[in-house]
Amino acid sequence: MFFHFIDTMKVKVLSRNPDDFVRETKLDIQRVPRNYDPTLHPFELSREYTRALNATKLERVFAKPFVASLDGHRDGVNCMAKHTKSLSTLLSGSCDGQVKVWNLTKHECVRTLQAHESFVRGMVVRYCGTSFFTVGEDKTIKQWKMEAPGYGEEEEPLKTILGKTVFTGVDHHWKDGVFATCGQQVDIWDEQRSSPIRSFTWGVDSFSSVRFNPVQTELLGSCASDRSIVLYDMREAAPLKKVIMTMRTNTLSWNPMEAYYFTCANEDYNLYTYDMRFLDRPIVVHTDHVSAVLDVDYSPTGQEFVSASFDKTIRIFRKDGSNSREVYHTKRMQHVICVKWSSDSKYILSGSDEMNIRLWKASASEKLGVLVPRERQAVNYNQKLKEKFQHFPQIRRIARHRHLPKLIYRQTKELNIMKEARRRKERNVRKHSKPGSVPPVSEKDKPVVAVVQ
Amino acid sequence: MASAGEATVKKAHVGKKEKKRPARYWLKAQHGEKPTKKRKREGQREDAPKSSISGKADPFPGPAPVRQDRVQRFKRERSKKLKPHRNNLKLKRIITGTKKDSEMAQEHAARVDVLLPEEPGFLEGDEDEDTCTISQEDIAEAVDITSGAKYFNLKLSQFGPYRLDYNKTGRHLLLGGRRGHVACIDWQTKQLMCEINVMESVNDVKWLHTEAMYAVAQKKWLYIYDSKGIELHCIRKFNDVLRMQFLPYHFLLATASATGFLQYLDVSVGKEVAAICTKSGRLDVMCQNSQNAIIHLGHPNGTVTLWSPNQKEALVKLLCHQGGVRSVAVDKTGTYMVTSGMDKKMKVYDIRAFKPLKSYFLPAGASCLSLSQRGLLSAATGDVVQVYRDVWSTPVTKPYMAHRVRGAVWGLHFCPFEDVLGVGHGEGFTSMLIPGAGEPNFDGFDANPFRSAKQRQEWEVKALLEKIQPELISLDPNQLGYVDRANMAQRHQDRVEALGYDPLAKEKFVPRFKKKGRSSAGAVERRKKKVAHEDQRDVIKEAVEKKLKDERKRVQQKKQKTALSEKSAALDRFRK
User: Fold this and answer.
1) Which residues of B are less than 8 Å from A34 in CB distance?
2) What CATH number is associated with residue A357?
3) Residue A276 structural domain
4) ipTM
5) How far apart are alpha carbons A227 and A247 in whole angstroms?
6) What is the pTM of this model?
7) What angle, 0 to 180 degrees and rounded to 10, lies between the N-to-C axes of helices A44-61 and A393-400?
8) Tens of pLDDT along A308-333?
9) Residues of B in contact with A6 (CB under 8 A)
10) Using CB atoms within 10 A as the burial measure, which of A446, B37, B166, B363 is most buried?
11) Nearest by CB to A11, which of B139, B439, B466?
12) Domain boundaries, chain B
């Protein structure tokens, strides 16, 4: 600190005042002077690797995705709808025609109404969030107010439309007072009228689901029982085009961010992501389920989607990943029929056969509640480390490991053996045929039978 | 001035309006409208110099410049440039992203470097005065009281000579007398923490990861004591230990014994990690490279060997001296190694390239060497301690400082983060002031001399969580970051070695048991033969195909050759 001159000798020795390095009172935080000189911090990479390994292990330790189960339905949950304006509200319809409105923060049912006489096949909340539509197997479309009726008032639908055939699905336009239903044909309805403003048919078939495109709002996609996916433009009289696949598609979901992509849940245990401009070949084939996939829903970020399957699991896929990043299951959860990703992108809701709706975390090891800044910083740092070292064999092994029910584990193995056998056979056929007569077919090309314009 | 600033602002806005952007549906609402406030501000930042409220233009616009040599200090070595495939856009994007991030971090670190509070010490004499003639008393008198108090002598003539060790933060000193006296001292406050006599000869003493525990190599076994002098462990697996080194990030205590064994003890779990028989006799010269945790051993035949716990043989053997090696030291950056030998020479090596850089002749030879954090070298010749500066960059002719102690020097150690050199000798201990020896700025998260008990506990937990596994010790500490370029065959071989069998090997054919007498020995053999024949057929087929291919190639080549030779000679047509 000080220079000293004695006999013209200049000397300075390190002399630190402890007051500069120690906190003044106990109420202060400790002083931590930093020096980023790399030679003072040896083994940078090895230490980071160790930290990443610890972070990965902790992630698996804290992976407790199940939050709550909402029970109250007296039959299997057949459909669900997210509220368009309120994060904490969920609507669900069951196989006995009952519709329940749930408060998710309190985990309780706030309203119950007997909407239909048999199955509630589909439901959707109007874009403004003031009312919702339900369709049932009793050939009716009903519009209900979102508010519960006052004391002593009867639970009455705002409007009831009696159709000619059974309805299997409904979806609402994202901006206008128009909605679409599907059944024997795809109908477009104006909210003010009691007859459809447009009906689309393409051959004789029945449709299982219809969805409006969230960006190009006049576009619709629907899945038909003749194994096809049909796209429509609401403004035109005829459907746009369809792709016929080897197996039936149950539902489809549009990517909300890149709305030219949609993902469909297929009966052949796979999900397929298509670009609607090039339907001749799916962009990604998402495998991993071991039974028919029944429902799919995108996260609002468009980066991931969740799928529900008949194999009693739900899986989360990255939009461009062919294998799932996560699988959720419990001992009690039966065939999962419907699934939704909450609008704040943090939770997943699944409705299953055994009358329960389950609330899951979208990221299994995430801590719920408010994080203090230091915690948030540590989480971000660990996330980055995991990302940086994700390809190291030991870290990858830990990060990928998931416990599966024995049945699914065995079925996965069996399916792999079958797949391998099929590949082997194909290879042998090619080997013993005239060269070039049996060209190799890509796995992506196999599910598509034809594209019809 | 003000008007000029405004004019430029306006101009920038006009320019912005004229520039037409491609139509985007999400920008439709804003089209034709005024740009939003945020946009406006951004535009200003990009295009025009900042104008303050007073209207004056910023005389130093933009970020402050950083000196390139400062940034260079924070650059990390990267041996090979990563080049992804041309079409792998995703990987390319990731690599450019991380590169940008690390460059930004380096720049930030260089900027923060300016704000470091302390400057290193120095000593400058008169124009014709050698600094080595300045005595310790003069320096102690010249500096402030607290620093002056750091020069002191402990007269311990009864149990000497003494070995010593400072802990990682430099606050605590451990003394071990040859005749059994062990003492630990908070040397800055001169508080004695404990003092014991182990009633046995002491070969070496070493602090473990904190000041709460230390290891003492006694006559027969290795003992661990706590700071109150209570014996915690007697480790009978480690016998006749002469020298010890502690690897703080691995929690490993490396010991070299008189029987020629180099052993590693994991002090966090108390297990022996590795025991290596070096087959080179008594090991009494040892040091560590703090950058890659490699242990350097000096041998009586003049060689220095480098060891890691993962290999039974030495990683490197260097012939350094004609006589035996007396002492080895490695600098903080892991670049230079200094050795002294019985041939009275002191040599400097570059241990990245294993090349000798400098060789000095010391008339008495150096018995002990020690390197400080800022690269000062202290060498003990008999009872004189000499300190040299810049031994690897410039040829040194005279020492920077010198001091005579009372007895023969037995141990030398620079105190980290202080301008202090501790000398253990026959008559006790001397703490010397060496201006410019210590790193002036410590990192509070790594080694904080002023840490409280609570901070130390927290640090200990963190350090234990980040304990590096001994398998990661290698000559290149960044080896973990390189892409594994092993091919399939190599990987398969590794897998076979790890598993102990070949998982992809073809299963041996075991004929199924059939009834009605069809599994008689003869039938089984026949079936086996049939399968074997089938396999053989494939092999033969392949061999024949290869042969045919080679033959065809040969014929083709021959044809070409003849065609070429025919063409080359113009007068061939006249040949018979």
Assistant:
1) 112, 443-445
2) 2.130.10.10
3) 67-364
4) 0.83
5) 5
6) 0.85
7) 10
8) 999 999 999 999 999 999 999 999 99
9) 138, 141-142
10) B166
11) B139
12) 488-544
